[in-house]
Amino acid sequence: MRSGFVAVAGRPNVGKSTLVNALCGDKVAITSNVPNTTRRRIFGVANGPDWQLVLADLPGFQRPMDALTERMQHTVDSSFEDIDVVLLVLSARDRIGAGDRYVARRVFGLGIPVIIALNKIDNLKLGHVASQMKTAATLGDFHALHPVSAVTKDGVDELRGDLVHLLPEGPMYFPVDQTTDLTIENRVAEVIREKALHLTRDEVPHAITVVVEEIGDKVVQAFLLVETESQKGILVGKKGAMVREIGQRARPEVEHLVGHPVFLELIVRVRSKWRRDAKMIERLGM
Predict the structure, then answer these.
(1) What is the pTM of this model?
(2) Nearest to 147 by CA among 160, 130, 164
(3) Which pLDDT belongs to residue 57?
(4) What is the pairing mode between strands 114-119 and 144-147?
(5) C-alpha of 49 from chain center
(6) Which CATH number fits domain 184-283: 3.30.300.20, 3.50.4.10, 3.40.50.150, 3.40.630.20?
């Protein structure tokens, strides 16, 4: 039996969570085009006949700006202990620049195998992908470099096989039917936040967090927290149109997670400067 932990590292918005979902064959992490969508370490679990691959989806490397991003960066820094492999994710659509090189210096200095995934190759010309692979190859002494598309799954099976090959012998860390370490409450909260991120723009997404108050037989109640009254107004929308749309988009996934039909009750509240409040962030479990 091969088993072990892989840290999925990279700068914000390179598609780490989408790639983790593709590797696990299940939606274990929410995704959006908003940088720093991932706020906590999430374990995604992939199982084979004689192996278990545990992927640690991490927030993107960043310079802390407040208590929330400071906690996120601390999560990243502390997540490389007892890791067997690092999966360094780059975006083929963006210039491989200083941010990528900074992350590369950190992970290549750990003394454990590093596999590079050049993500988002779908709809790109082969010459561009080849050029990006050539640049990626200069980042460090990597074990393998895989061009992949987490969206189309192109190259994902080969990448998964290479990761499994590097795992040591070990036990199963999670039951075979478990694909993530998140609680049902956290998964429901993340689904609701994902839909809110998809529907809002500008300053609102970074100020949103979701707390699930109740998961009952008939009702799931959750609070959407923002920092200002103006953000609340945007999230509620005219005559409640925005928050209703968030609920309509989230409910099918929420019902799939809880296993039965529910009424999804969403309540928007203001928690001023919650991202700067370390105690509040601790209570939110981040």
Answers:
(1) 0.86
(2) 130
(3) 85
(4) parallel
(5) 26
(6) 3.30.300.20
